[in-house]
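ingest -> validate -> predict -> emit
validate: passed (alphabet ok, no gaps, 200 aa)
predict: started
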Amino acid sequence: MPEIEIRPATLDDLTDLYFVALKTGNSGSDATSLFRNDQMLGEVFVGPYVTHASETSNLLSESGKTIGYGLCVLDTELFQNLCKKHWWPQLQIKYAELKHFSEDEWLIREIFSPTPSPSEVLKDFPSHGHIDLLPQVQGKGWGRKLMTHMENQLKDLGSPGFHLRVSAYNERGLKFYAALGYTELLKRGDEVVVGKRLSL
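emit:
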């Protein structure tokens, strides 16, 4: 039987983590060829976490192969400020020639004008994160285990609440979070923000 385990994600894992992001980046489906290159999605949604919140970045591996991740941060506001100072500028330089496309390509727009978590949820749900699993491991309980692992990490660090931003088109993901006790906090555009209070 292949051994599946949750372990800390490191910078050495970024290539594999970016691959998972790509294969799940279209509201849970494969996003290959939807963007300018295969790294951009991971650079926006994975790299900042592993780089600036490594203590709460988790990887799911099967016999040494990366098959998923659960990335979270204790203090969303602090994390966003760190990224504004240290992460986004380097991507903006890398993709400078694409800036004029940002009005009609949402991923490029995220690089030049990152969408923050809504401030009105941060008082009660200051932590946030996201999770992605490759199709072959979905529906087998590992998503739940990863979420529980992140919730426990955040509880141990003193967080009162955890929120996630989910595509409004990701019906499977929204049902998954609801089954874990997450409630809808608000909707904005094509995004639903769900949250759960963490008992201390």
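The chain has one domain: 4-158.
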